[in-house]
Amino acid sequence: MNTLAAAATQTHGFLSPTGVEIAFLLVGLATFGAAIVTVTTRQLVHAALWLVVTLGGLAVEYLLLTAEFIAWVQVLIYVGSVVVLLLFGLMLTRAPIGRSPDADSGNRWAALTVAVAAAAALVWVVVDAFRTTWVDLDGAAQGTTAVTGSILFQHWVLPFEALSVLLLAALVGAIVLSRKTATTARTREGNR
């Protein structure tokens, strides 16, 4: 009887992952693949749709980390708002729907070098910043609405509001660009 209790309380090791860890890895690989397709496709609409898959995969990762509130914020704000804003911007500016020769500048190796350097710097900064940070398991669960709201509205209000103003400016800019294009087209037709 004691061996059964000891086996039940024994934690799993590095080489014996749980089902959640395997699902986390598989969803992470699918999300990474969708992100690669997002930045390498030459069709803008396809890039926007692959961005939906990438952001949805991140929401699933948050669910697997038991951060339900953050997962739903990811779905509502990023998938629901940012991608829709991006698609409206594409429609309003009359961007090409099919393959676009303008989508490839020929600087792929320079872009890859900058991307790898930026990713390495980001990993280094995050690892260095959280090297000695420990999660308080006795406190409120991380990722809950109470903890997330407290952190968001105490420390991150200004960047959150700045992002909302930036998104509003992008929407207004897309509308202004579409109106200029329509006015220019009407002027050209009137001159004929």
Written overview of the protein:
With 192 residues, this protein is mainly alpha-helical. The protein is 75% helix and 0% strand. It contains 7 helices and no strands. It has helices at residues 2-9, 19-40, 44-64, 68-92, 108-129, 145-155, 157-191. Helix 2 runs antiparallel to helix 3 and helix 3 (44-64) packs antiparallel against helix 4 (68-92). The longest helix is centred in the C-terminal third of the chain and has 35 residues, at 157-191. It is globular. The chain starts with a helix and ends with a helix. The mean pLDDT is 79.
Counting helices, strands and paired strands, the structural category is mainly alpha
Which whole number gives the mean pLDDT? 79
Please work out how many helical segments DSSP would assign. 7
Order of helices and strands: HHHHHHH
Indicate the percent of residues in helices.
Answer: over 70%
Shape: globular
- Biggest sheet layout: none
Strand tally: 0
> Strand portion, in percent?
under 5%
Unreliable stretches covering 5 or more consecutive residues: none
Indicate the topology.
Blueprint (H helix, E strand, L loop, with lengths): L1 H8 L9 H22 L3 H21 L3 H25 L15 H22 L15 H11 L1 H35 L1
Question: Which features characterize this protein?
Answer:
192 residues; mainly alpha; globular
Structure, briefly:
By secondary structure, the chain is mostly helical. It has 7 helices and no strands.
